[in-house]
Amino acid sequence: MAMKIVFYDGECGICxxxxxxxxxxxxxxxxxxxxLQGETAKSFFSTPPELSTMIFxxxxxxxxxxxAALRAVISTGGKWKFLYLLLWIPKxxxxxxxxxxxxxxxxxxxxxxxxxxxxxxxxxxxx
Length: 127
Prior knowledge:
globular
């Protein structure tokens, strides 16, 4: 099975909250997480991606922005599969909303809270 990786801004409170949401929903622990500022991202991408862009690799294809977020949630399975319907919304509209939130992400959540990770959760994070 190909490794599924969610790349995110490691200094963003909204991104951090989204990663913790994914961790809670991913009962089979198929997702891995890597900050865009980390070594995994540096070796994965030939040019550094913008920190405002969430990226999801399902092992065969790479998705950006709103599609990355949606496909990451969908990949957790179960009740979230219905989100496939949101992929029918034109990308320019989905990404437009994504860009607005992304642009103001540091103002929306100024002081993110840190979640203590147990040993199993720590294994889900890549450098």
